[in-house]
Structures are given as structure tokens and as C-alpha cells.
Structure to design on (427 residues):
């Protein structure tokens, strides 16, 4: 008997099952690889741009920090200029009724060692001129600054040297944490006792090796002070102290401070090309080798604000006693300053500041040009930077440098409070 024919569905179900093949063709594979390369390239470009931006932001932040730190450092020091522990020079003392005898006659040598030694004329000029500035010209001579050639080494051209003098606001022997006077350093004392017959402290006056600003004699065993301040080394200051107002307590000894700032044309190794702000400090009775403070400071200039006109419009002069517009109430001296700068001047090699200008400085305008530490590829600095109140000539500017370093100019006006406040009177 014949077998019935298989249904059509059974025929197909009886055949072996074959799955359809799937995958990329060569064209599809090449297209996907190209798209992947574009994506990777875009990611790499993004990563490079992010790193470049981060690097530029880091350099910019460092430049800003260096500029701000430089100004803060200089401002803190300059603002203390002329602080003499309560002592007021006679030419700035409005209670002085005579012609002042301590008017500075010359700009003092800023780097003169104490061992020279200092004489009374030098100290008078030193105390009366707490701020000095010099120029390093575009073509650096040798020596750069005749008085400080051993300390102003490898200076940056077209910058300034600034010298600041004052007393350390910490009183040795009085304030906690202040070091006791040492023989190696110079100290300053102010006499506040008005009793000239006050018995002297223990010690033999005739053995004192050095004393500036005070003349001590003995009358029947009693000390007679004929001056109001004493300046000397720690050992001498300790041996013969001046007195406080109670005429019993020895006057505190303030450490004499003098700081010299300038810009060196390298940081660590000569020729590395990193301009650096330097500071030499007066310790152990002499200026010490300068220390590096802040890298990237390429420009540094100072203008002094001079108080040369009284509030009544008269010229400032110290050849006569104080003349008052209101002699009854002692207001508005007509021949003394009012503590406000009337003009600004930069002390240059061609026109150095005179003693009359320096003693009337009541403010300082500081200019700091900061350069980035590393160059920026594709950038060219074609700008000129004005480091003066006005820039009528090219000498007042710095640049264009036409290199790949980015720069920023900072300026700050600092008031010499200890000097300007002495000249203020009620209107």
C-alpha cells in the first residue's frame, strides 16, 4: 500500500534549519572606523584644549598671585617708613617753636655699614629721610648704584631700587616674642623723661663706645640728657637706657630696620632669564646679601609723592619757625606741609631726588610689572606698559617685548602714615 504524500508543511519542516548570516560589510567597517577616529580625534582635541586652558589659567593665577603678593609685601614695609618709636624730627614737629636744626642736608648713602661709623650728620639725614629710590637705567652701568654695588647685583634694566627705613614695631624687652637687644644689631630708643636731673642707671658713661643722637654728661653724679633719642648697638643700648615718661622705666629698644628692594635679572642661576624681586636687609649692623622673594617680577618702579605746598598755598620751607594762619588755635601752618602729596616724581639717574624732595615724601606710588613663568605658544606680547603717572616718553614705558610671555601691570599708592600724619592740622 502506497504511503500518503507528505504535506507541504511537513516537507519544509523536515529540511535542515539554516540561520541567516549577519555582520558588517567591508564598506560598513571602514565607515565605522573613520567615524571612530573622528570621535577619538575630537576627544583628544578637547583634552588638549582643556589642558592648555588649565595651563594658561595656572600661569595667569600665578601671575596674579605674584603681583598681589609683591604689592602687599612692599605696601606693608613702605607704610611703616618713618616710624621712630614716638620720636618726631624737629622739622616735622609742629610743636617746635624754633627754626629746626635737624633738616636733612643730603641724601644718605643707603648702604653705609654701621662700622664706618655713622656720625651725627649721617644719622640726622637717615632719620629725616626714611624712603629713598634710585634708578637702574636701560644700559646697566658698573657699578649699578655706587653706594650699594655689592648688594644690587645683576639688576634688571629700567627698574628702580627702593630703600625703606623704620623701626621694628616689636619692642624688645616689652612685647612678648621680641628678641632681647644683641650687640650685633642696631637699636633705637626714644627719651620721654623731661627730668634732666634724673639719676643715671648703673654703668659708666665714659666707657660707652658709640652713641648717636644723645649727649650724656655727668653733673655731680647725675645724668643730663641733651637729646631725645639714642641709636647704637644692642650692647650699648642695654648699658645706658633712656627713660619712659615716669623717668623710672628704661625706654624700650626698637630694632633699626632698613630694607633694600630691587629686581635681579635671574632667579637661581645666572642666565636663567627669570627676573626676580630681591631684598637685602640691614642686620648685624650691615646690609646682607639679597634674598630672592618673588619670581616673574620684570618691572619695578617707584614715584614719590611730595608734600611741597601747605594747605594755605604757601611753599614748604624749614628755614624759619612754624608760621600759623591761626596763631591762637595753631591751625594751618603756612610754611609747612599738610600731609597730602602735591606732585609725584621718580628719582632717575639723569635727575636724582634731592634731600629736600626726599624729606617731603609722604606717599609712594609703586608699579610692578609681572611676567608669566613660561611662554604661551602662539602668543606675542606687543603691548607697551606705562609705569608712571603719565607716559609722554618711551622711557616711561616698558615694552613692547615681542615675545611669548604674558604680562600684567599692577600699581598701588601707599601713604607714609608716620610722616604725613605729623603734618596734619585742623582746617
Amino acid at each position: 500500500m502506497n504511503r500518503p504524500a507528505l504535506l507541504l508543511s511537513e516537507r519544509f519542516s523536515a529540511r535542515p534549519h539554516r540561520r541567516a548570516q549577519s555582520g558588517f560589510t567591508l564598506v560598513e567597517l571602514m565607515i565605522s572606523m573613520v567615524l571612530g577616529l573622528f570621535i577619538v580625534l575630537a576627544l583628544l582635541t578637547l583634552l588638549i584644549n582643556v589642558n592648555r586652558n588649565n595651563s594658561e589659567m595656572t600661569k595667569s593665577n600665578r601671575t596674579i598671585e605674584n603681583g598681589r603678593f609683591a604689592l602687599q609685601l612692599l605696601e606693608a614695609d613702605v607704610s611703616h617708613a618713618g616710624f621712630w618709636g614716638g620720636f618726631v624730627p624737629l622739622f616735622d614737629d609742629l610743636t617746635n617753636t624754633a627754626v629746626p636744626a635737624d633738616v636733612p642736608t643730603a641724601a644718605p648713602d643707603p648702604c653705609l655699614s654701621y662700622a664706618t661709623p655713622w656720625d651725627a650728620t649721617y644719622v640726622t639725614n637717615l632719620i629725616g629721610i626714611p624712603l629713598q629710590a634710585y634708578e637702574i637705567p636701560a644700559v646697566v652701568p658698573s657699578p649699578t648704584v655706587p653706594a650699594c654695588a655689592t648688594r644690587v647685583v645683576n639688576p634688571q634694566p629700567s627698574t628702580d631700587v627702593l630703600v625703606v627705613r623704620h623701626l621694628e614695631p616689636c619692642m624688645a624687652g616689652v612685647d612678648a616674642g621680641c628678641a632681647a637687644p644683641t650687640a650685633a644689631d642696631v637699636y633705637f630708643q626714644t627719651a620721654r623723661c623731661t627730668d634732666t636731673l634724673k639719676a643715671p642707671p648703673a654703668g659708666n658713661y665714659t666707657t660707652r663706645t658709640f652713641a648717636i643722637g644723645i649727649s650724656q654728661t655727668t653733673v655731680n653724679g647725675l645724668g643730663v640728657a641733651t637729646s631725645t633719642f639714642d641709636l647704637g648697638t644692642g650692647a650699648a643700648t642695654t648699658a645706658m637706657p633712656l627713660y619712659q615718661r615716669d623717668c623710672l622705666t628704661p625706654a624700650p629698644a626698637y630694632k633699626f630696620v632698613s630694607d633694600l628692594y630691587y629686581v635681579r635679572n635671574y632667579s637661581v642661576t645666572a642666565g636663567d632669564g627669570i627676573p626676580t624681586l630681591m631684598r637685602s636687609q640691614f642686620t648685624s649692623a650691615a646690609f646682607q646679601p639679597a634674598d630672592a622673594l618673588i619670581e616673574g617680577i620684570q618691572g619695578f618702579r617707584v614715584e614719590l609723592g611730595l608734600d611741597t605746598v601747605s594747605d594755605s598755598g604757601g611753599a614748604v620751607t624749614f628755614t624759619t619757625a612754624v608760621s600759623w594762619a591761626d596763631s591762637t588755635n595753631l591751625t594751618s601752618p603756612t610754611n609747612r606741609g599738610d600731609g597730602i602729596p602735591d606732585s609725584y616724581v621718580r628719582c632717575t639717574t639723569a635727575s636724582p631726588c634731592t634731600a629736600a624732595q626726599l624729606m617731603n615724601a609722604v606717599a609712594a606710588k609703586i608699579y610692578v610689572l609681572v611676567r608669566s613663568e613660561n611662554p604661551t605658544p602662539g602668543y606675542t606680547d606687543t603691548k607697551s606698559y606705562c609705569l608712571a603717572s603719565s607716559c609722554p616718553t618711551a622711557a616711561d614705558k616698558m615694552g613692547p617685548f615681542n615675545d611669548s610671555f604674558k604680562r600684567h601691570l599692577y600699581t598701588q599708592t601707599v601713604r607714609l602714615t608716620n610722616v604725613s600724619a605729623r603734618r596734619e592740622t585742623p582746617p
Summary: Confidence is low (pLDDT under 50) at residues 199-226. The first strand starts at residue 131 and ends at 136.
